[in-house]
Design brief:
Length: 80
Amino acid sequence: MVRVLVSHAGHHLHICEECLAQIGLPPAEQVDTETSQFRQVFSLKAVHLLAFFILLAVGVEVTIGGAHIRSAALLINLLI
């Protein structure tokens, strides 16, 4: 257990650029916030349409499921 903690602490005290330099890789490039991958993905119209479809489909599913539960509860109350 101590061995794992020491190893973990030893590796996480280095910054990313130092670790990449030790294995011979160039440092990671800085990502500009204006052209980040998330911004590019969320600007797509298809993502918005898919999100709206999922919201609609889940809403319908929950509504139908709730109606079945209510009707089953009413049936049980009538039988009791």
